[in-house]
UniProtKB/TrEMBL annotation:
It comes from Euphydryas editha. This is LRRNT domain-containing protein. Residues 30-63 form the LRRNT domain. PROSITE patterns: LRR. Keywords: Coiled coil, Leucine-rich repeat, Membrane, Repeat, Signal, Transmembrane, Transmembrane helix. Residues 636-647 have a biased composition (Basic residues). The chain crosses the membrane at residues 539-560.
Length: 747
């Protein structure tokens, strides 16, 4: 306990000390202007209107943000901050860098110069400026006005052996020319050239470059060998080049290494991907493709993901997708496909998901695929579905046929695997007990927004043991509450533990008086006859019980109060009795003490020798009879007296224990003090008895006079007298020292 307290205290000390220490550090001037993290490693001076670096930035800083200020020349003593890892100086007015700008910044990894006023590469000192920053990984030069990315005579060559990412978005670069501008960046991995008015990407030579971003440029043309000098290129994003086409490839390969190609929002008419034989993911959405020929992707056997959505594809052939043996995801939505040859998907043995939404398909047809599990044919104007439409799809789990024109589901539509059937927003008006008879795995069925009127029956799903989700809302249910089937079906759909739909989604649409009510609202009193009466009854009962309970409570409280009062009175009486007893005892004790004093019996405990014979002769004679006298001097008395004393104190102790009441405690204290007094008095008397001997030697007459006084005077007077008597006496050990010396009273 104590140990933990001490620990806590120590901890507190340490913490407060740390805080004080921190506070001291916070008095750094820079932290008045900027916001500093508590350990001073992160200093944010952005948006402060600064024209230069604030003074006194701790050398501990690893992340310094001085973006969006008015700095127009590179802060020359940044080199103090040799721990800097990230420097954001974007949004300022820099237009040149001294050769040694980054000296000493060996830890720097991220340098952001975007949104500055650089216009020429030469003003950067590109050959030298990055060399000291030997850990630099990311350099952001976007939103400057370089106009070109050139390398003429090596003077504009950016040199950094460590740089991995160079960002040149929005730099008004319209051409890349000269010997490869990337040749000084021997570790370059990522080059971003988005939003530049680039017409061509050429002259890019880098054995290491993996990712190239040229979105939203003005590329229109990729030449046969454009990527030939980028042997590591894996990721190419060239979306939003509105004039760009894929080059016609005849035998020649554009990029052996490319795995990811995004050429969405361009001007592609023909998805000639055969130049990219290792492609894994191709996004060609929002282009101008009108048709797909046979064997269109035959050389893309590694392709796994193909997005051809938002084109104008009107037709495809049965063997269009031949050779796409790895393809898992095919998106053909938002096209103009009216007919899909049955065996089209059979060519893709790994195909798992196909999106055909928003096409002109008018029937589900008889698609075939051994692997397809998720099929989206929503919003397609489909009006016909055959009972065997899914039979060629032995892996189908989920089919989305929402937003079509289906008005009829054939009996016994069959699939051994189908789990989720989405028929939302069609025109279906009836099903029966055999409609889903052949869908043994059906788990979720949605028919939101159809035209069902007559309430279904539980028997419709007799052979769908896994059904746990039914979405039935937004239909035109005709509620006939007296129909047992309705209640039965309501229970089937909404009751736990097999609840399939929220009851508030089940809304009646007819008869006229029930429009807009939930099934339960509409039928509550018919399904629960007598409920109304019962509820009134139960209310009355409730009130009666409440009243009864309340009065019972009051009675109990009253009784408790009464008994407590009685008990309190009893305690009070007992207390008074005890006090009385104690007083009695005290009175007796006092009387006895008085008698003793009167009899002048020396207490045997005062180990004082009895008076000698001569002394005894000079003593006054006893003339009063004294009953306590026969007790004195015997060991028995001593014991008894001691016992009585302890007993009385024990009684008092008992009293305190019993009561615990402050007032009683007071009583006891007074009792105790009086007891003390009596004890003291007794002691005094004893002493008096012994001292008396000395005194008698001195003035025998005085003693006699006092004795006669004693009888008439009351207690206090006695005490006074005794005090007077004792005054001249010294304590026993000093009995023979200076007797006139005043001594402390025993009282
Ligand atoms: C920059 O240098 C000036 C003097 O040349 C000095 O007062 C200031 O503290 C320095 N700033 C930093 C951040 O070291
Ligand atoms: C610097 O501050 C700006 C504005 O507060 C913020 O947008 C930017 O992300 C910060 N830079 C870094 C590297 O945290
Ligand atoms: C350069 O960094 C070292 C520590 O790496 C430091 O001692 C020295 O003062 C710094 N030089 C300058 C000019 O800031
Ligand atoms: C550089 O700063 C700009 C503007 O503050 C920001 O948009 C960009 O993401 C930053 N670059 C890096 C690499 O953090
Ligand atoms: C590539 O597309 C062009 C039209 O842009 C077409 O003439 C050519 O036949 C296609 N090449 C291959 C191999 O598909
Ligand atoms: C595509 O593959 C076929 C053989 O599968 C081959 O003859 C043809 O040259 C390849 N085309 C390209 C452009 O690589
Ligand atoms: C089904 O298709 C509709 C319309 O395209 C879409 O809103 C919904 O999210 C799809 N449902 C599933 C489960 O994919
Ligand atoms: C379906 O209901 C009809 C009557 O409507 C009945 O004759 C038939 O046996 C039921 N079939 C099944 C499989 O429950």
């Amino acid at each position: 306990m104590i140990l933990s307290r001490i620990w806590g205290f120590l901890l507190l000390c340490i913490i407060t000390e740390a805080e004080i220490f921190d506070f001291d550090q916070h008095t750094n001037e820079a932290c008045y202007v900027c916001s500093c993290s508590s350990d001073l490693t992160n200093v944010d001076c952005s948006h402060r209107g600064l024209t230069s670096l604030p003074d006194g930035i701790s050398t501990k800083v690893t992340k310094l943000n001085i973006s969006s200020n008015e700095i127009s020349s590179f802060p020359n003593n940044l080199s103090h901050l040799f721990n800097l890892v990230s420097l954001d100086i974007s949004g300022n007015h820099l237009n040149e860098l001294p050769e040694d700008a980054l000296r000493n910044l060996t830890a720097l990894e991220i340098l952001n110069f975007s949104k500055n006023s650089f216009e020429s590469w030469l003003s950067l000192n590109p050959n030298e400026v990055l060399k000291p920053a030997s850990s630099l990984k990311i350099l952001d030069l976007s939103q400057n006005k370089f106009k070109t990315l050139a390398n003429l005579g090596n003077q504009e060559l950016l040199i950094s052996p460590s740089l991995e990412t160079l960002i040149l978005d929005d730099c008004e670069i319209n051409s890349i020319h000269g010997r490869s501008p990337l040749s000084g960046l021997i570790s370059i991995r990522v080059l971003k050239l988005n939003n530049n008015p680039l017409l061509r990407i050429q002259n890019l030579i880098s054995p290491t470059l993996k990712s190239l971003y040229v979105s939203n440029c003005q590329l229109s043309y990729i030449s046969q060998n454009e990527f030939a000098y980028l042997p590591s290129l894996v990721y190419l994003k060239m979306s939003y080049n509105y004039r760009l086409q894929l080059p016609p490839t005849t035998e020649s390969i554009l990029s052996e290494s490319l795995r990811y190609l995004d050429i969405s929002y361009c001007n592609v008419f023909r998805p000639n991907l055969s130049g990219f034989p290792n492609l894994r993911k191709a996004i060609i959405k929002n282009n101008m493709i009108r048709f797909l020929i046979s064997n269109e992707f035959v050389n893309n056997s590694k392709l796994e993901y193909l997005d051809l959505s938002y084109n104008n594809i009107g037709s495809l052939k049965g063997d269009t997708f031949r050779g796409l043996s790895m393809l898992r995801y095919l998106d053909l939505s938002w096209n103009e496909i009216a007919h899909i040859p049955e065996e089209t998907f059979l060519e893709m043995p790994s195909l798992a998901q196909v999106k055909l939404a928003r096409n002109y398909l008018n029937k589900v047809g008889h698609l075939k695929s051994t692997s397809l599990s998720i099929l989206d044919m929503s919003s397609c104007e489909i009006s016909v579905i055959g009972k065997d439409s899914f039979e060629g799809l032995p892996s189908l789990l989920d089919i989305n046929l929402s937003h079509n024109l289906l008005s009829y589901i054939p009996d016994s539509i069959s699939s051994n695997t189908l789990k989720y059937l989405n028929l939302n927003f069609n025109r279906i008006s009836s099903i029966n007990n055999v409609t889903f008879f052949m869908l043994p795995r059906l788990a979720g069925l949605s028919v939101i927004g159809n035209r069902f009127t007559s309430i279904w029956s539980r028997t419709f799903f007799n052979s769908n043991p896994y059904l746990d989700r039914l979405d039935l809302s937004d239909n035109m249910w005709r509620c006939d509450c007296s129909d047992d089937n309705m209640y039965d079906f309501y229970e089937f759909v909404t009751l736990e533990p097999n609840k399939k739909e929220e009851s508030y989604n089940l809304i009646c649409n007819s008869p006229i008086n029930l429009i807009g009510q939930t099934w339960l609202e509409a039928c509550y009193f018919i399904w629960n006859p007598g409920e109304k009466v019962r509820s009134a009854d139960s209310l009355i009962w409730f009130i009666i019980i409440m009243i009864g309970g309340l009065s019972l409570c009051l009675l109990i409280v009253h009784l408790i109060k009464k008994s407590m009062n009685r008990r309190l009175a009893a305690i009070q009486a007992e207390r008074e009795r005890q006090i009385e007893e104690a007083r009695d005892r005290l009175r007796q004790l006092r009387i006895r003490a008085e008698q003793e004093a009167l009899c002048n019996t020396p207490d045997p405990r005062d180990l004082i020798a009895p008076p000698s014979y001569d002394e005894a002769l000079s003593m006054p004679k006893l003339n009063t009879s004294c009953h306590s006298l026969n007790e004195t001097g015997t060991g028995k008395t001593k014991r008894r007296r001691g016992r009585r004393k302890t007993k009385s104190s024990g009684d008092l102790l008992e009293e305190t224990e019993i009561s615990g009441d402050a007032r009683v405690f007071d009583d006891i204290q007074t009792d105790e003090t009086s007891n003390d007094n009596s004890k003291q008095r007794r002691r005094r008397n004893r002493r008096y008895g012994s001292h008396d001997i000395d005194e008698l030697d001195q003035s025998p007459g005085a003693r006699r006079r006092r004795m006669s006084e004693y009888d008439t005077l009351n207690d206090t007077v006695t005490v006074e007298v005794e005090a007077q008597v004792e005054q001249p006496l010294s304590p026993r050990n000093r009995r023979y020292s200076d007797e006139n010396q005043p001594r402390e009273s025993n009282f």
